Amino acid sequence: MSTFSGLNTALSALQYNRVAMDVASSNIANVGTDGYTRRTIQGASVGTPDQPAMWSRYTGAGDGVRVSSIDRMSDALLDVRARREHGNQSYLDIRQSVLERVESGIGEPGDTGVAAAIADFRSAWHDLANNPGSDAARSAVLGKAATLANAIQIQARNIATEAGDQRVRINADVAEVNTVAGDLAATNKSIAVANLNGTDAGTLLDKRDQLAMRLSELTGGTATGRADGGFDFAVNGVPLVTGNTAGTLNVAAGIDGSGNSDGNPISFSITDSSGTTAVPAGMLGEIGGVTDLLNTTLPAYTQGLDAIAQQLADEINTQHQAGFDKNGNPGQPLFSYTPGSAASTIAVALSSPADLAASGIPGGGLDASNATALAGATGVEDSYQRLINGFGTTVASVTRLAANQQVLTDQVDGSREQLSGVNLDEETVSMLAAQHAYEAASRVMTTLDSVLDTLINRTGVTH
After folding, report:
1. Does residue 276 fall inside a structural domain?
2. Flagellar basal-body/hook protein C-terminal domain spans which residues (predicted)?
3. What pTM was estimated for this model as a whole?
4. Same domain? 45 vs 106
C-alpha cells in the first residue's frame, strides 16, 4: 500500500463531509418551502480492490468513504394515503361550504324566511276574518301574499345562483386539472432524463408529488409510480397521465358552452391519443363534491321547494275559489305559477283588494267564513318544515363527516411532516457533526503531510 494513499482516504472524508454540510444547508434553506422533502446523505465505505495487481497483496485498511446517494426522506405508502385522504377531504369540504352557504340563504329559523312569511300570511287572513269590511285588512292580505311569494322566489333564486356558481367552478377546476396533468407529464419526462443522465432529480420529484397531490384534491384520482421515477395518474380508473403524455378531462354533459345547465346530469370524459373514454360516476375530490351537489343535493331541494310552492298555491287557490269577493263574485286564483318551476315563478294573481274572496256565501256582506278557512290552512307549513328539517340534517351530516375526515387527514399529514419536514435542530446537529468530521479529516491530512515531510526530507540525512 502506498504511503500516499492515506491522503486519498483523508480527501474522501473531506469530500463526503463537505457534501453532508451542503445537504444540511440546503435543508435549512428550504425549511419554509412548500412541498420540499428533506434530504439525507448516505455514505458507503470504499473497501479493498476487487482485483489486486498480480503477485501483490493489498495491505491497506480501506480507501475511505464515498457518497452512495442523497435520498429524499419520504414514504411511498404515506404519500399514497395522503393523496387519498386529501381527495376525500376536498370532496367533503366543498360540500360543507356550499351547503352551509345555502342554509344561511334559506334563513330558517328567522324573521325573514318562508316559515315566517307563511305565518304572517295566515295572520293577515285572521285579521280580515275579524274585519271583513276593512279595505286595509284586504290590502294587508295582498301584501303578505306578495311577501310570501317573494320569499319563496328568493330561496329558489339563491339556489339557482349557487348552482350557476358551482358550474363555473367545475369548468375552472376542469381547466386546472388539464393544466396540472400537462405539467405532471412534462415533469415525468424531465425525471426520466435526469435519471438517465445520473443527475439529482430531487427537486423534480418534489414537484411531481405536489402535482399528483393537487390532481388528487381536484379529482380524487390515484397516482401510480413508474420505473423511471414518474407518476401515471388515473381518474376513476381512466388514465389521465401516462408517462410523458397527458389526456384531457372534459365535461361530457350537464353544462353547455355558455356555462348553463343543459338539463342532463353532469358527467365527464377523458380524451387521449386512443380516443375518448367516459369517466365512471362517483368521482371524489373537489370536482366530485360539486358534481354531487349539482346532480343530486341542490336539485332535490329545488324540487322540494317547487312542491311546497305548488302545494301552497293549489291549497289557497282551491279554498279561495270556494268563496266570494267583496262584490259577490266567485273567487279567482290568488296565486299563479308555472308548472315544473313553481318556486321561481309563484306570484300573486290578484291586484285589487276587493277581489279577495273572504265571504263563504254569495253576497254575504260581512261574512268571513272563507277568510277563516284560508287562515286555517296548515298543510303547507308541515310540508315546509319537513323539507327544512331534512336539509338541515344533510348539512349537519356533511359537517360532521368533514370534521371527522379532517382529523384523519391531519394525522396522515403529521406523519408525513415528521418524516419529510425539515427540523432545524436536527439539521443543525447534522451540520455540526459534518463540520467536526471535516476538521478531523483535515487534521489527518496535516498529520500525513508531517509524516511524509519527515520521510522525504529527513530520512537518510547525515551530519
Report:
1. no
2. 420-457
3. 0.86
4. no
